Amino acid sequence: MSLTSFYFLFFVLCTVLLYYVVPAKYKWTVLLAASVVFYISYSVAGIFILTATALITYFSALRIEKIGDGYQSWLAENKQDASKEERKARKKASQSHQRRYVALVVTVSIGLLFLFKYYGYFASGINRAFSTHLWTAENLLLPLGISFYSLQLIGYVVDVSRGLTKAEKNPLKVILYGSFFLSIMQGPFNRYNHLMPQLCGEERKRLSFYKFKLAVLKISWGYIKKMCIADQIGCIAREVFSNYAKYSGLGIALGMAAFAVQLYADFSGYMDIISGIGELMGIEMPQNFRQPFFSSNISEFWRKWHITLGAWLKDYIFYPILKSKVFLHMNKSLSKTLGKKTGERIPTYLGMLILWTLIGAWHGAGFNYVFSVGLLQFIYIVLGEITTPLTNRLNNALRLKKGSLPLRIIQSVRCTLLMMFAWVFFNSPTFTDGAHMLGRLFSGKPSLGQITAVFNTDSEVLTGSMKAWLPYLFLCVLVLFVADLLHEKGVFIREKIEKKPYVFRMLVYLAIIFTIIVFGAYGEKVNVNDFIYFDF
Amino acid sequence: MKKRYLQLTGKIIAFILCFAIVFLFLNAVFSDLYATRARCFDRMEDNSIDAIFLGASQMFSGVNAQKITEEYGISSLDFGSDMQPMMTTCYYLQEALKRQKPKVVGVEVCEIFNDSITVERLVYNYSAMPLTSEKYNSLQTVLDGDKLRAVKYCVPLIANHSWWNQINPIETLRDLFFYNSAECAERGFLYRYTVEPQEIEYLGEKDGNIREIPDHSKDAINYIADLCRQNDIKLVFFKLPVARDWTRNDSKTVKEYMSENGFTFFDMNDNFGEIGIDPETDFHNGSHLNTPGANKTTDYFVQKLKSLEVF
Question: A222 and A185 share a domain?
Answer without folding.
Answer: no
